[in-house]
Design goal:
636 residues; mainly beta; Immunoglobulin-like; six-stranded mixed beta sheet; 9% helix
Length: 636
């Protein structure tokens, strides 16, 4: 019974011959089963025995002339004989009887034998449900299991089942593209977890399989990554027939959120000092970059002057404002998971002394040629102090001194915008020279301790000083430039000065002839709580034709008096933190077209000189003063 005999059709035919010596006798045939059916491998079911026995027949033969013959046939449809093992048999027989007309009989036995063949055993197995990477999968236990079904139709056979790895482990991205070979240790660990098997088991049944790995690091898997590997199961029966099935294991990756080092990284940094920080090493993600993981970063609440470059991952720049900033660093992975941390960045103004060093010993140069005529000194020694030809103390016009209508304090301790003055007057010699003084608004005052110049350009100066109460004062001084077209323009240095004090000039607008509005915006973090005040550059109160909105910082100039061509305006903003920020603007009203036609020239406001002119005057006065003093001394 080779092949699939689970629904076999059995067919057979033959011939029955009969005769009688009595010429005139007739013969009748009949057939009966002998009930001798035997299966060499065991007992048949009554249903199968009856089905097999019912297959034999001969045509009806009654009073047939002798000698004669007739055919026999055997036909059974859809009979299951798969249970017969190789060499097993089923035997059964029938007795055919011939009876003549005189009642004499003769019998003949017809025997049938069904011979079994070997059927290969079969396996049935369902792939395991996927194993999923745990949220914290660096030491994950992997456990799974299932059942293998097996059948050998040859019921008297035994079977043995075993397995072997197909060495086909693959790490793939979501979508199926291979990523890279796994480390050998991990590969061997994962493959080693499968187990099953049986020897000489009954022909049909079920066998359990298990998969168990106690600790595997799967954190590197990205969302949707898979690791697949398979085993071949083999079943062999006792007659050597075999078949195979494949069982596949799948491990599926999940997203791991990025993590960040929370070690303290607070910093204190000097304002004006270049700053650079690559913070990306603080962040990490267990998911492998090789399979597509990537972190993107963002930074918030940086002090002005610092920027974050997402292409390089570096914070850099030069901080322009002081204060304490809570900087937030945020990392986001490709699946949207994120982690953030803060650090405190304290920007402090450099604390340096601007004390003027002692001057070097003075060596008089030779007098300029043709500048003076040397004469004998017949006068008594000069009294201390400054004298005129008549012995008075009035200022000598044109003798190297600058009157109150130009630089205010002049040489005798005057500070000038951005300088400490040209000396201490006649009795003090050339003196301290240009330094880092208090600016035009503090003409005639000595340098302030712990004061530092942050920006120094031709038309812009920024100075920071520390007040006795611990707060700081930031002061920016700028010349307001008017283009040939009559527009107010600010260059890069002036805008740097605005940024340093967080006071920005949004616009200067002439609303009508003789009227000017200056819009000032506070761009500091405490802008909403700032209070604005203003004075002239000399510190004097504003005249009636200049007003300031203390909440909005809007300065209005309305019809300045005749002859008022320029002024220095000082706007001060005090924040809730006590920090004082000062913006000084040198305004040329004539250039801006808001002067009133002169009826009688008004006396210029004391102390006003444009920034460039102050510096030039200081230098020129220094040169003239030195030459004249030397000439005078040599003539004595």
């Amino acid at each position: 019974m080779a092949g699939d005999s689970s629904a076999q059709d059995l067919r057979g035919t033959g011939l029955v011959s009969f005769g009688d010596l009595d010429d005139n006798d007739t013969v009748s045939l009949s057939v009966v089963g002998n009930n001798d059916m035997v299966w060499s491998g065991g007992a048949l079911s009554p249903e199968l025995a009856a089905q097999l026995l019912g297959g034999f027949s001969i045509p009806a033969t009654v009073n047939a002339a002798a000698p004669g013959s007739t055919s026999w046939s055997y036909a059974v449809d859809n009979v299951d004989l798969d249970f017969l093992a190789a060499g097993e048999t089923i035997t059964f027989s029938y007795t055919v009887t011939a009876t003549d007309s005189q009642g004499a009989t003769a019998e003949q036995v017809v025997s049938f034998t069904l011979i079994g063949s070997n059927d290969a055993p079969t396996l049935s197995v369902v792939d395991a449900a996927p194993l999923v990477e745990a949220i914290d999968g660096d030491r994950q236990a992997l456990v799974s299991g299932g059942v293998i079904g097996y059948v050998d139709a040859d019921v008297n056979n035994t079977v043995s089942i075993g397995f072997e790895s197909n060495n086909d482990i693959v790490w793939s991205k979501q979508g199926g593209a291979p990523v890279a070979p796994l480390p050998e240790a991990l590969r061997n660990l994962l493959v080693s977890g499968f187990d099953t098997g049986v020897v000489d088991a009954a022909s049909s049944g079920q066998l359990a399989w298990t998969y168990r790995v106690p600790e595997a690091n799967l954190d590197f898997l990205n969302q949707g990554d898979t690791i697949t590997f398979s085993y071949t199961l083999t079943i062999v029966d006792s007659d050597g027939a075999a078949s195979t099935e494949v069982i596949t294991m799948t491990i599926v990756g999940t997203n791991d959120a990025p993590v960040v080092d929370v070690a303290n990284m607070d910093q204190k940094w000097l304002m004006g000092k270049p700053y650079q920080l690559d913070f990306s090493p603080l962040f990490s993600d267990a998911d492998a970059a090789i399979s597509g993981e990537k972190l993107t970063f963002s930074v918030s609440n940086l002090p002005r002057g610092l920027v974050y470059n997402p292409l390089t991952g570096v914070i850099s720049g030069t901080p322009l404002v002081s204060g304490v900033f809570k900087v937030t660093l945020l990392a986001t992975d490709m699946s949207g998971a994120r982690v953030a941390r803060d650090y405190q960045l304290e920007i402090v103004a450099p604390s340096v002394s601007n004390a003027v060093p002692a001057p070097a010993p003075f060596v008089p140069p030779a007098p300029p040629a043709n500048d003076v005529t040397v004469v004998g000194n017949t006068f008594t020694p000069l009294p201390s102090g400054l004298v005129t030809a008549t012995g008075g103390s009035a200022v000598i016009e044109g003798a190297g001194f600058i009157g109150t209508s130009s630089l205010g304090g002049g040489l005798g301790g005057g500070s000038g915008l951005g300088g400490a003055g040209i000396g201490g007057g006649l009795g003090g010699g050339v003196g301290s020279g240009l330094g880092g003084g208090a600016g035009a608004a503090e003409v005639g005052t000595p340098p302030v301790a712990n004061e530092v110049v942050l920006v120094a350009r031709d038309n812009a100066l920024v100075v920071q000083s520390e007040n006795p109460n611990g707060s700081t004062t930031l002061r920016a001084s700028v010349d307001v430039n008017v283009s040939a077209a009559g527009d107010v323009v600010f260059d890069g240095a002036q805008r740097d000065a605005f940024n340093a004090v967080s006071l920005n000039v949004l616009g200067i607008e002439r609303t009508s002839p003789g009227q000017l509005n200056i819009r000032i915006a506070d761009t500091s973090p405490a802008a909403s709580s700032a209070v604005y005040t203003a004075t002239l550059g000399s510190g004097e109160a504003l005249p009636s034709w200049i007003t300031i909105d203390p909440a909005q910082g809007l300065v209005s100039i309305d019809n300045p008096p005749a002859g008022q061509k320029a002024l220095v305006l000082r706007v001060q903003a005090v924040g809730a933190d006590g920090q004082v920020r000062v913006l000084e603007m040198t305004l040329d009203l004539e250039e801006m077209g808001v002067t009133t036609p002169e009826a009688e020239a008004a006396e210029p406001l004391a102390g006003f000189v444009p920034l460039r002119e102050q510096l030039a005057s200081e230098l020129a006065a220094n040169d003239q003063y030195g030459e004249r003093v030397l000439a005078f001394l040599q003539s004595s």
